[in-house]
Structures are given as structure tokens and as C-alpha cells.
Amino acid sequence: MMIDIYPWLEKTAKRYEFDEVRIADATLSNETQQHLRDFLDKGYHGEMAWLEQTIERRLSPEHMWQNAKTAIIFAKNYGPDHNPMDNISRSEHGNISVYARSKDYHGVMKGRLKQIASQFMSKFEGEVKVFVDTAPIMEKPLAVKSGIGWQGKHTNLVSQKFGSWLFLGIILTDAELVTQNASEDHCGSCQKCLDICPTNAFPAPYKLDARRCISYLTIEFDGIIETEYRKPIGNRIFGCDDCLAICPWNKFAQTASDTRMQIGEKPGLLRLSMLLSLTDSGFREFFSGTPVRRAGYKKFMRNCLIAAGNSSDRSLIPIIIRYLDDDVIAVKIMAIWALRQLCTNEQFQHLKSQYKDTQPELVAEWGAAI
């Protein structure tokens, strides 16, 4: 027999400061599964090898836990108090994606979901498992199926109530619960999210080539960022919000109000001169508790050097020069590139004569930069 727990669930979710909760059965359509296969077959996942390694479990929740019958999807609003697009012109600063400017949502949300799950088990029959973006579950299709929102042409979730700014968490249960209806797609003919992308990461509506996505390049990708992406990256040093921020449905978005998600006074815009002066330990201390630490010090400095090269701020040159001695080739190459953008030809040629690099990638960068 189906159990209708929604009145209790809605009240409980609100008490734990979730902004939306819906219920769907724990299955995904053949069409959704095929979309994932196509994404991987085309290599759009880049270096995110875990997507390929976990594909069988990822295709549908019951593949990961065979007893799963129902998914309870929780959504947490993280809407900013300003238009993130305004930050892009502040080239002397590094711009951090909105989601990473507060406490890491994984830990905060998972702690709350575990408490809800415990209460669920004591009140209703059924086993549960809790997930917050840390297991091979396709959260967005489940959120669509439950009615929280729809996947826009940028492949991200869009809500009529909260626009583009929602974190998702899931409780799977072997209990059979009354479910809600799926959301309809309300994108219509709009394709602002596709047109705004600085690196043309969308080969078609509803399809993302992550290898071209600035969020992927600055967070997931460990290597040398190709020249064609460096200028378009601008001052984005951790993630990118362009396709989210431009969505017209954000007119209904609300500013996040959960004070327990906030962390100090650290803004999304930070001076590049300060960031490039951070040591490894200073980086870890400054970004403690935030998702930014996930990038690691070297990758983050690589990103900051690209932003420095796009800043037109010649006062950064002495700081950038220090990175010509870095032991990570991706960092050193970005320092060379940044210096070429900021130095005069005479200055750059002088630096090149001082650094007799023999590694092919470095030789090519010094040469390509002239």
C-alpha cells in the first residue's frame, strides 16, 4: 500500500531549512539513461572518469541499491543577493562561483538529511540511504520527475520558484510512497543560456560538452588549459555562473537566507594580488570549509594566473614572475601566458632569455606567446 507522508515531510523539510521537497519513484526513463550514454560515448565528460566507471549504477537508483523504491528529493536555495554577471567586469579581482562562497553544502545538507532520515525510520516503515552529490545518482532527472523543476537547455535545473539556484539532496527508501507529478519544460524558444556561454560549451540545446565548460576547466580539469579558453575564462577562478545567471526565470529567485550556510565575510570577488600571494597553507586556511579547497592550491593558482593575464593590471607582474619557478608545469605555463599579456615585448624577451626551459610544453609556450 502506498503511504502518503507528504504533509509530514513538507513540515519536517521546512524545519530543517529546506526550501522544497518532492517525491518520485526511484527509476529513470530509458531516454534519460540514453542521454547519459551519449554524453559518455562522445567524450563530453573529459577527465571525469568516475562517470564512466560508475555508469551502470548511475543509470537508475535501483541499480545502485536494488531495494530502492522511492526517492525523496530535497532542494536548498542558494540564490545570490546580486547579479553574478556584474562581477565579470571586475578584472582586478578573481570571481568565484556563487555556490562556492558559503560553507560546503555537502556536509551541511547531509547532516540535516540524516536527521530527517532517522525520524522517517522511527515514524514510518522502511530503510533509507542518504545522498548529497557524493554517489552515482542523477539528482537532476529525479528532481524533474518529482516536480521541483525542469532541466533547462543548459542542462541545469530550473525552478519556477527559485530560478537556477538550488542544491539537491536525496533520501532513497524501500518504502513505497505517494509520488508527485513531473515538471514541464518552460524554456520555450529562449536560448540565452546557450548564447551567453563564453567557451561555446553547448553543442546543442540540452547537451553540454564539459571539456569546454569553464566550471569543468577550473575545478575538474588538472592539466594545461588550452589557449583558446584562456581569454574567455576572464576573471573566473572557480566555476562559472553565466548560463545560470542569465536565465529569465531568475526574476522569481529569492536571496538565500540560511545563516548556517554562510561563512565569515569572504565575498565572491577577491583581489588577485592577494590570491596570488597565498601560500599553500594560507590557501587552505583562507578557504577552509568552502568548496574552493577542492581545487587544491596548485590548480587554484593556475586559474588565478589566467585571471591575472586577463586583468590588464601590470602591478601583478612581479608576483606572476615568482611562478616561473613553480614545479607544476601547468602553473608555470599559465605564468608565461599571463606575463605575455601584461609585459611589453622587451620585458617579455628579457624574461625568456633568463629562463632556459627545455621541456617541450614550456618551449612551445614561450614561443607561442611571442
How is the biggest beta sheet arranged? 4 strands, antiparallel
Give the termini distance in whole angstroms. Answer: 72 Å
Please tell me what the overall shape is.
Answer: elongated
Rg:
22 Å
- Average pLDDT for all residues: 92
Structural class estimated from helices and strands: alpha+beta
Helical content class: 40-55%
Number of helices: 18
Unreliable residue runs? none
Number of DSSP strand runs: 9
Secondary-structure element order, as H and E?
HEHHHHEEHEHEEEHHHEHEHHHHHHH
Number of domains: 2
Strand content is: 5-15%
Largest sheet: spatial strand order: 1-2-7-4
Protein architecture, described:
- With 370 residues, this protein is of the alpha+beta class.
- It has two domains: 1-254, no CATH class; 272-370, no CATH class.
- It is 40% helix and 11% strand.
- It has 18 helices and nine strands.
- It has a four-stranded antiparallel β-sheet with strand order 1-2-7-4, sandwiched between helices.
- A hairpin with a 5-residue loop joins strand 5 and strand 6 (157-158).
- Helix 14 (297-309) runs parallel beside helix 16 (329-342).
- The longest helix is centred in the N-terminal third of the chain and has 19 residues, at 105-123.
- The radius of gyration is 22 Å and the shape is elongated.
